[in-house]
Amino acid sequence: MIPRPPSRLRAALLCCLLAVGLLSPATASAARPPYSLLHMNVCASGYAGCYAKTQYPKIVDEVVARVRANDVNAVTLNEACSGDVASIAARTGYHYRFATVIYRGAPLPCKSPEGRGVFGNAVLTKEAIRAAEDAPFSVFSGVEERRWLCVTTARRVDVCTTHLSTGGEAPGTANAIQCTELSEVLSDRGRPTIFAGDVNRRASCAPEGQWTLTDAAATQAPGIQHAYGTLAAPTLELEPTTYTDHDALVVRAGLRR
């Protein structure tokens, strides 16, 4: 058997083949890891201080453009609006589930402009969604409930997201308690699992045995968006955004047999 070249050498050979036209873009795309996820906090409620930067509907257009450019299997969105998520799904052909966040005891209608549905978090997937579950954490700080959302795709991959409370990550805080509960949600799901979300903390919430990637090198609000999972050999790409106050995360990884 002829030994395979090291990964760095394989990457260099791939670039050379592309440069001389011996490898098509389609073949190069096929060489990517088989599972990918885009995460964005879109700050779209119309209430938050970052809203002016979203220049609605430009933030929706930016999400659609990034989904198409990265050709991902899954998308996780925080601080989104249900109507905008439905529009993104329709424009990209993705399936979706939305988890409504309760604010002062009721769903929060998005504003500026109105008519965009209610505030919450979402998961979108290229493959069909076979099951979904979401639930609130046992505690939260302030008037905004925090929830987690997980879906199971036809490919039998679980994709999860959440947006944890602010206020610090010290033991006993709402964020710390939510972190522990999130770890329990992600642990031993029985299927390949990938999570991404704005956890508002720097210490990981990943269960034992799962990897952690963070946006510590981001240009905006570094270190508080994380990705966890059980997929193989994950890599992280950070993409500066134009119309929100967090950089975008693109995770690519392999699916274990």
Question: Major β-sheet, in short?
Answer: 6 strands, mixed
Q: Rg from C-alpha positions? A: 19 Å
Ends distance: 23 Å
What structural category arises from helix and sheet content? alpha+beta
Please state how the strands of the largest beta sheet are arranged side by side: 3-6-2-1-14-13
CATH superfamily of the largest domain: Endonuclease/exonuclease/phosphatase
**N-to-C order of helices and strands:** HHEHHEHEEEEEEEHEEEEE
- Helical residue percent? 10-25%
Mean model confidence by pLDDT: 90
CATH topology grouping of the largest domain: Deoxyribonuclease I, Chain A
Classify the beta-strand content into a percent band.
25-35%
Structurally, the number of domains stands at 2
The CATH class of the largest domain, by name, is Alpha Beta
Would you report the number of β strands?
Answer: 14
> Helical stretch count?
6
Described by the principal axes of the CA atoms, the overall outline is globular
Question: Which regions contain 5 or more consecutive residues with pLDDT less than 50?
Answer: 1-29
CATH architecture of the largest domain: 4-Layer Sandwich
Describe the structure.
The structure is a single chain. With 257 residues, this protein is of the alpha+beta class. The chain folds into two domains: 31 residues, no CATH class; 220 residues, Deoxyribonuclease I, Chain A. Helices cover 23% and strands 32% of the residues. The protein is built from six helices and 14 strands. The strands form three sheets. The protein has a six-stranded mixed sheet with strand order 3-6-2-1-14-13, covered by helices on one side. A six-stranded mixed sheet has the order 7-8-9-10-12-11, covered by helices on one side. Strands 4-5 form a two-stranded antiparallel sheet. A hairpin with an 8-residue loop joins strand 13 and strand 14. Helix 4 packs parallel to helix 5. It is globular and about 45 Å long. The protein starts with 6 loop residues before the first helix and ends with a strand. The N terminus is likely disordered.
